[in-house]
């Protein structure tokens, strides 16, 4: 038996798996984007701004209130 079966048994509908996945990705993105290293200014963008940007990135609209930059000079939203 697969080890993930009890975990997936908690969901009663496939839509719950999708919703939970979106929530987890948005939560992780919010945590990472609120770090000071994620912005070009070197200051934390704040959790509301990070939440907005993470949700926007997951939903493919790509809106951002702050210029985010990855360590290797790759811009997440430009």
Q: Spans with pLDDT under 50 lasting ≥5 residues?
A: none
Structural class: mainly alpha
Count helical runs.
3
If you compute it from the alpha carbons, what radius of gyration comes out, rounded to the nearest whole angstrom?
A: 16 Å
Largest sheet: none
Helical content (DSSP H or I, runs of 4+):
40-55%
How large a portion of the residues is in β-strands, by DSSP E? under 5%
Mean pLDDT: 77
Describe it for me?
- The relative contact order is 0.13.
- Helix 2 (14-33) packs across helix 3.
- This protein has helices at 5-9, 14-33, 47-58.
- The chain contains three helices and no strands.
- The longest helix has 20 residues, at 14-33.
- It has 78 residues and is mainly α.
Layout of strands and helices, then pairs:
Layout: H1 5-9, H2 14-33, H3 47-58
Helix pairs in contact: 2-3
Features:
elongated; mainly alpha; 78 residues; 0% strand
Short account of what is shown:
The protein is mainly alpha-helical and 78 residues long.
């Amino acid at each position: 038996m697969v080890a993930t079966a009890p975990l997936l048994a908690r969901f009663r509908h496939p839509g719950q798996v999708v919703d939970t996945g979106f929530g987890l990705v948005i939560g992780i993105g919010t945590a990472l984007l609120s770090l000071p290293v994620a912005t070009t200014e070197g200051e934390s963008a704040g959790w509301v701004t990070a939440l907005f940007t993470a949700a926007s990135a997951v939903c493919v609209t790509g809106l951002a209130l702050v210029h985010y930059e990855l360590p290797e000079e790759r811009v997440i939203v430009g």
